[in-house]
Amino acid sequence: MKVLSRLVVVIVLGLMGMTINAEESSEMAPRLVLADSTGIVHVMDTASGEIVTALDMHEEMDEAPRLYVGPSGQYVFAVLRASNMVRVIDSGYADGVLAEPTLLDFTLQTMMPTHFDIYGENIVSFNDGDGSVTIFTEAIFNGGGTATTFFTGQSHHGVGVMVGETLIATNPTTEAFLPVGPAVFNADGEMVAAFDNCPGLHGKAILGDGRVVFGCDDGVAIISRSGDNWVTSKITEDAEARIGNFTYHDETSVLLGNWGDDSYALVDVDAGTITEITLPLNIWLAPPAFNPLNVDEVIVLTQDGSLHTVEATTGEVVATAAEIITAYEEPEDENARVPRPALSIAGSYAYLSDPIAGTLHIINLSDMSEVAVMELGVNISSIAILGA
Q: How would you classify residue 262: left for phi > 0, otherwise alpha for psi between -120 and 50, otherwise beta?
């Protein structure tokens, strides 16, 4: 029955229709990689709206992969936390040429890979199951190379950040699953500095000057290099809301974080301030994303299913694509798992999934018009954009 249901999904995807004019089609990313809640990854050509192939990440269990485009832009990593592994997809897109996508034989086996980040050529996986950090490059499955593993001391929900050749990971505590601050490791894997000034640490951003900002229960912590040493400072905030995710733009040096239901946070690290930016509607559970067409603006998804263009530092709503997807309703059971939409932005377009209706929506950010709606019939949980 499980194999049959997946076959039906692939057929539905293969027959879906999409109407996009030639000019818009040529400006879009040539391929999208879409992960559904059953563990199947679908590679779509945007010009035709057709699924090129569907790849099963884990035939023995259903798990929604989280997708990340690798440094070269050719490979996509499917992170399967519950399955303790990371699979690699050759997207078939390289140097402007489209070929058949394939699932590589290479599999990275780790203990609950969770936070997964790309820093230049380095790929960093923080593994909650044992608190380790695995660092590797695409060379590991493309002609050579090895993975290096650093250990923080115990399992916890942490993160690894590369600043040059230095790894800044998280400092765990036996009292909570979230860490209490950042820790610095040298190339030999030795912890050379550890701090405990950021209880409940979650979320990070690397500023243009190399400083790293982390979200804490009581504000944000900043770690930076001072000569041969690393030091930290703190912006304390006693509001009920907390920052757990950041968005940063190098060009404008604007740092934003998620913050409560109807607002986000504007963080000025130099001034040592956190300012609440309030919006008319409740925000989806994610920080704003900067608009590629105007770096002074952000794209915000609100719980009524609308997508907005907003002035980043004032919160003024500039334009709205109203009720694009099904509205989100907070479950009464705090432990209930509610399907969440996936939103990815590149070039002039936003790609947004509706997990309730089983659709994928493409929005032109220049005028917030809906370019296409695709009937997928499955819950798309993650979107990777290729060639944008």
A: alpha
DSSP state, 158?
-
Q: 327-383: per-residue pLDDT in tens?
A: 988 777 877 777 789 999 999 999 999 988 999 999 999 999 999 999 988 999 999
CA neighbor of 68 nearest in space, from 9, 138, 151: 138
DSSP summary character for residue 14: H
Nearest to 168 by CA among 153, 181, 155, 154: 181
Planar angle of CA 246, 301, 293, nearest 5 degrees = 75
Alpha helix segments (H runs only) across 78-124: none
Q: What is the pLDDT of residues 111-126, one digit of tens each?
A: 999 999 999 999 999 9
For 37, phi and psi rounded to 5 degrees?
A: -70, -10
Query: Residue 142 and residue 70: Cα distance in Å, rounded?
Result: 12
List of residues 6+ apart from 33 with CB closer than 8 A: 41, 42, 43, 44, 67, 69, 76, 89, 91, 383, 384, 385, 386
Phi then psi for 53, rounded to 5 degrees? -160, 160
DSSP 8-state class, residue 282: P
The encoded tokens of residue 216 equal 């804490």
The neighbouring-strand residues paired with 44 are: 32, 51
- The Cα–Cα gap between 61 and 20 comes to 36
208: its two tokens:
């243009």
- Backbone φ/ψ region at 381: left (φ over 0), alpha (ψ -120 to 50), beta: alpha
User: Could you tell me if 40 and 366 are in contact, meaning their C-beta atoms sit under 8 angstroms apart?
Assistant: no
Alpha-carbon distance of 120 to 251, in angstroms, equals 18
Residues 6+ apart with CB under 8 A from 13: 42, 51, 54, 376, 377, 378
- pTM assigned to the model: 0.92
Q: For residue 136, which amino acid is it?
A: F
Neighbours of 38 (CB within 10 A): 19
